[in-house]
Design brief:
Elements (H helix, E strand, L loop, with lengths): L2 E7 L5 H14 L2 H4 L5 E6 L15 H13 L3 E4 L9 H10 L2 H8 L2 E2 L5 E5 L8 E5 H5 L2 E5 L1 E5 L3 E3 L1 H4 L8 H8 L3 H15 L3 E11 L7 E11 L2 H11 L8 H8 L10 E5 L29 H8 L2 E4 L9 H5 L5 E4 L2 E4 L9 H5 L5 E4 L7
Parallel strand pairs: 1-12, 2-3, 2-7, 3-4, 7-10, 8-10
Antiparallel strand pairs: 1-11, 5-6, 8-9, 10-11, 13-16, 14-15
Helix pairs in contact: 1-3, 3-5, 9-11
The protein binds iron/sulfur cluster (2 copies).
Length: 377
């Protein structure tokens, strides 16, 4: 059976329009048939860092609110749970929800926010690379799990959508440890698929109203795409999401691997689209993340590729003048290769594995992605 993806235009985050469209998505995908009164439904947005909704870094609280209202319509209870980068503690989590506009939204609608910050280590039987990982408790105990990714570029893996959003299931500072265990893009992508295959979200809803292009997932620019998409298959949803930004499994390793492992469709031909055609919303000029745009190397003659790869491999560079010395980059660095001296961060590139966690987590967006010479376009 072909995986189904529901796609529809939605120009803004107005609560009425959002609820009406998501209500249709729940009907079209049979979600209401699965939700039971009293059931606890966990909503997992992307709240990677404290950021205002208009910056297009996080899943917009209005979208999470509308999904919560659909859950309430079915008589079920919604619990919002996330683990951003940095230390995972109840006090920080409460501040984080407030900074992202989630506390006010949850209070208004009577949705619960998870702040206990507990996790358990679990085995991932389907894991190709990662067989054990810590996962935050509500995602393990959810009776029904709704994944709420944001449509964004990603410096390391190229694209951030449904599969990548579930990396947030790993508590706080254990994420850099996984970066350290899987420094290569292929292995890291396998690990992302391992976590997604374990968690098996029941539904994923993509926030593509305001997407992020360029230096995603936190330092890029807002791109108004005006769309919502949803599917029971995170892999099918990501095939559509990546096509919307002019990419696909040939460039996004996690999508190719999910297809090869038989977890999801290998191409859009294997997806049944409900609602609007992808072409109506696809952006041909969507800016990719700089760190991931090395596809041209594969098109060079073989003898030139090793040198080109060396020159073109991006590296992080801190704008010393603008750095405020907060230490978030050092905290998130799996290699512990960033020191704060004299109120400024400095990177020892010899030990750097180019995971770009520092780039992702810098609240001032002063960790730049650079390449040598002519490759620094
Ligand atoms: S996170 Fe950014 S601002 Fe903070 S110390 Fe690192 S580079 Fe400087
Ligand atoms: S310096 Fe930045 S890119 Fe390098 S290992 Fe540390 S977090 Fe990753």
């Amino acid at each position: 059976m072909r995986e189904r993806v529901w796609l529809q235009g939605c120009p803004d985050y107005g609560p009425v329009g959002l609820f009406e469209r998501l209500d249709q998505a729940f009907e079209a995908l049979g979600v209401y048939d699965s939700l039971k009164p009293g059931m606890t439904v966990v909503l997992k947005p992307n709240l990677i860092m404290a950021s205002k909704p208009e910056e297009a870094v996080i899943t917009h609280p209005a979208l999470t609110a509308a999904v919560g209202k659909c859950v309430q319509k079915a008589g079920a209870k919604a619990l919002i749970a996330e683990s951003p980068g940095g230390p995972y503690t109840p006090a920080l989590m409460k501040r984080h929800y407030a900074a992202c506009g989630y506390q006010a939204m949850a209070e208004e609608l009577g949705l619960a926010l998870y702040t206990d910050c507990k996790s358990r280590e679990v085995s991932l039987p389907q894991g190709e690379r990662c067989r054990r990982a810590s996962v935050i408790e509500p995602l393990l105990d959810a009776e029904y799990l709704i994944n709420l990714p944001k449509l964004k570029t990603h410096g390391m893996v190229g694209y951030s959508g449904a599969v990548k959003n579930l990396f947030g299931a790993v508590p706080g500072l254990q994420k850099p440890e996984l970066h350290c265990r899987f420094p290569e893009k292929e292995d890291f992508s396998h690990m992302l698929v391992d976590i997604c295959a374990f968690l098996k979200p029941d539904l994923s809803v993509l926030d593509g109203i305001w997407a992020m292009e360029g230096n995603g997932p936190t330092g890029g620019s807002r791109r108004e795409m005006g769309l919502l998409a949803a599917s029971a298959s995170p892999y099918a949803l990501d095939l559509c999401g990546s096509a919307l930004i002019g990419s696909g499994p040939e460039r996004i390793a996690m999508l190719r691997l999910a297809g090869e492992r038989g977890l999801g469709p290998g191409s859009l031909d294997e997806v049944e689209l409900l609602g609007d055609p992808i072409e109506d919303y696809a952006a041909k000029d969507f800016l990719p993340a700089k760190a991931s745009s090395t596809d041209f190397i594969d098109r060079l003659p073989a003898f030139l590729r090793p040198a080109a790869k060396k020159l073109a491999t991006p590296y992080p560079k801190i704008d010393g003048k603008a750095c405020v010395g907060c230490g978030r980059c050092a905290q998130s660095c799996p290699q512990h290769t960033i020191q704060i001296t004299g109120g400024k961060a400095r990177i020892d590139l010899k030990k750097c594995i180019r995971c770009f966690c520092c780039h992702e987590m810098c609240p001032k967006h002063v960790v730049k992605v650079r390449r040598l010479g002519i490759f620094d376009l």
